[in-house]
Amino acid sequence: DAGVIQSPRHEVTEMGQEVTLRCKPISGHDYLFWYRQTMMRGLELLIYFNNNVPIDDSGMPEDRFSAKMPNASFSTLKIQPSEPRDSAVYFCASSPLLRNTEAFFGQGTRLTVV
Amino acid sequence: DAKTTQPPSMDCAEGRAANLPCNHSTISGNEYVYWYRQIHSQGPQYIIHGLKNNETNEMASLIITEDRKSSTLILPHATLRDTAVYYCIYNNAGNMLTFGGGTRLMVKP
After folding, report:
1. Cα–Cα distance between A75 and A58 in angstroms, integer?
2. Position B18 pLDDT exceeds 70
3. Which residues of chain B have a CB within 8 Å of the CB of A97?
4. Which of A68, A91, A101, B61 can pair with A97 through a Cys bridge, CB separation 3.0 to 4.6 Å?
């Protein structure tokens, strides 16, 4: 397996524009996680899914952020409208179980909102 | 949020063992200790985890004290490629991970 695949690797957009980040988890993994990393706040969990269903979105910063998982092999994180403070590296991770197992992280998407 | 205490940075000579400490004095009985690392510009990488017993895998060893209030990650023969930020995390929420500041390990030739 190629691991968790995220696209794009880099995204530069203007404030106010819609941004969509994409993730393909490892096949067979039932759990998918979206994290955000900034210098100020470090790595934060935004939301996670189990079998394509959102379970905990308490980390999503505001209503401008939304995440979907239409099927087991694809998830999106959308920001609409984007703001400069959304600039960060966004990571997607997947795991076969929730506990007592490792999470596999993608290479991340570096988002810059100007 | 579960909080751990790690030194912000450490140096290690190439080929020597790197011992990374972590304090987790408020850990409860059913919370696992996880270690991840993040090499520059990459996603976090799982290293090892444990509950009570010491654990070893191909990457590292994890030593957990009997009272479970602290642990040490041991990289037996550090290489330059082990230079990274190492995160110690404990929770019972599995991969809903809460990352702290970590330890920046610099392996030097």
Report:
1. 18
2. yes
3. 94
4. A101
* Chain A interface includes B96 (CB < 8 A): yes
**A106 close contact with B: CB closer than 8 A:** yes
Tell me, rounded to whole angstroms, the distance of Cα A44 from its chain centroid: 11
B89 or A14, which is more confident? A14
Return the residue of A nearest to B41 by Cα. Answer: A107
CA A22 to chain centre: 7
Residue-wise pLDDT tens digits, A45-83: 999 999 999 999 999 988 999 999 999 999 999 999 999
Q: Give residue B104's pLDDT.
A: 97
Question: Residue holding tokens 């994890």?
Answer: B62
Pick the residue of A91, A92, A102 with the most B CBs within 10 A to test the interface with B by mutation: A102
Instruction: Please give the single-letter amino acid code of residue B48.
Output: I
